[in-house]
Amino acid sequence: MVKNMLKDIIHTTDWITAEEVPTMSMPLYKDLFTEYGKYTGTSDPYGNSLHGCYQWANYKDIEAIGDNLIHKDIGYIGKAKRDIVGRTRAVILPAGRHPVKMAISAGDVELNELRVRYLITSSDPDSVAAKQSSKLEKHLHDKMDKKFGYRYKWLNAQLSNDNKHNYVLQNWREMTFEQAEKILPQVIEITKQLGAEYIDARVDAIVNGDNIE
């Protein structure tokens, strides 16, 4: 099963920085989509497709990760319904929403430390390729969970952290009224941001056909 799933990957890119994630007008974007996906250009952006999964990591862990697709230091593993490159741009765009941003907010990694690589699968036809990407992502998540106890290293990028609210509540009760009043506006703003990112991630999962409990 492991070998069959990994055979679905037709190309694995080098690691690139967040700033190097290309827009559709850049040569790297066109090269990747032309060779491994479907490129319809900037005049028909919704026709562009590049399927597969993507992996984020801290540049400090890249050497240890090496060529391994399953490794304890892989920070995040995700997919997209149609365009894995476009999905990763959501991490660096100011208005973009992505679970990795929660890891950044939590201090797990800084934006300039991010590195991403693409595990590209077949993009023809798109409907079949999208299901293939979902199966590959689940396979990678399951293998990570079985070997290390988590789907990916940055737990703050997951949609839930079961115990963190209890720690926050405990500390909150220990504050004075003046301390709580002082930080309340920031807490409200952070809650709004996390809510928006959470909803975006759930919508993305629904669009990609994932099961949501």
Topology:
Layout: H1 2-7, E1 9-12, E2 16-17, H2 27-36, E3 52-58, H3 62-65, E4 76-79, H4 84-89, H5 99-105, E5 114-121, H6 126-148, H7 164-173, H8 177-207
Antiparallel strand pairs: 1-5, 2-5, 3-4, 3-5
Question: Could you please describe the fold and organization of this structure?
Answer:
The chain has 213 residues and is of the alpha+beta class. The protein has two domains: 2-155, no CATH class; 159-207. It is 46% helix and 12% strand. Strands 1, 2, 3, 4 and 5 form a five-stranded antiparallel sheet that branches. The longest helix is centred in the last third of the chain and has 31 residues, at 177-207. The radius of gyration is 18 Å and the shape is globular.
In short:
With 213 residues, the chain is α+β, with helices and mostly antiparallel strands.
How large is the count of helical segments?
A: 8
Report the count of strand segments. Answer: 5
Mean pLDDT: 85
How many individual domains? 2
Q: What percent strand?
A: 5-15%
Helix content: 40-55%
Low-confidence parts, pLDDT < 50 over ≥5 residues?
Answer: none
Broad shape:
globular
Largest sheet: 5 strands, antiparallel
Rg (C-alpha, Å): 18 Å
